Amino acid sequence: MTATEIGTSERLLAELKSWVEIETPTTDAAAVNRLLDLAQSGLAEAGAALTRIPGRDGYGDTLIARTPGEGKPVVISGHLDTVWDHGTLAGPMPWKVEGDKAHGPGIYDMKSGSFLAFHAVREILRQKVKTRRPIVLLLTPDEEVGSPTSREPIEQAAAEAIAVLIPEPAGAPQGACVTARKGVGRFVVRIDGVSAHAGGNWTDGRSAVVALAGLIQTVHGMTDLPRGVTTNVAPVWGGTRPNVVPPEAGCEIDLRVSSIEDGLAMEAAILGLAGERDGIRIAVTGGMNRPPMVETPETLQLYALARDLAKEAGYDLPKQHRGGGSDGNFTAALGIPTLDGLGCTGAGAHAPFEHILWRDLAPRGRVIAGLLETL
Fold it and tell me: Model's pTM, two decimal places?
């Protein structure tokens, strides 16, 4: 039985509103840091030991909060950045509560989950609840662009941990947690051709756009659904005017794989598209950004504990494998048992109808607190 008193969903929603009303696009470090300041204040008041890592490369800071205890810690990590630009809250996605749904930019992915992690740690400290191990909470600024600055502190914390919890959104529609995720690769293709007049000197030109079209077909053909391998090309660009043979073109490639072996093979295949032929030069950069999160017996033990805690909280907790990546991919690849998707129920990540089922805040929060207490 969870000892920490989480409070009502109504109370949690009221405080979560203050988080959602601070817009935090990844590319605005100062905006992300404003929300980090709010979280830091609450954790400091509760007595957490805090480390704040200054941001770099245009991203915000990373906050690490620790609770007292002995032995290997339990790590819980959530991000504060969202995909939504400033003005979204005042424009197409205002804060609103309609029946069981609470709407707002980033509320589902993943401010509600990060807030529940923050709230659970704060209340454990405030209420002086005895936990079996110390807790390490990370609040990070850049997950939506691949965690370029927060990956290192996440992996450092995970390497010393007994387990890692990731409060990313629960899977719709049943509210499933996540025991496996696909690995993610990102690549950029740049093609140089030869410019020429499209009428008078067509034969002198070498169209970068035509070369790109062929490359896109090749990449699309690499998809292998039975193996769990998918590719997607977007965005694409090229050319300047209809009467100019385009000397430049390019695209980005998203790769998803289910195994480390497929990640290595597909990375080599996509990078192998680079080269020069018939006046066309193709450059490909990038690689695997997140390794696959593979389901293990240790992960299933974590899941079984979470499922039992969910029953005590009054709901069923299924599990699922998910195609999208998270920071759990990094920690699982280190061999640390990782349970993901522990955030709030809802739908619409990265979509204009993004929302949570706010009445689930308290029961989902109780499971997070129970895991932090008992692992």
Answer: 0.91
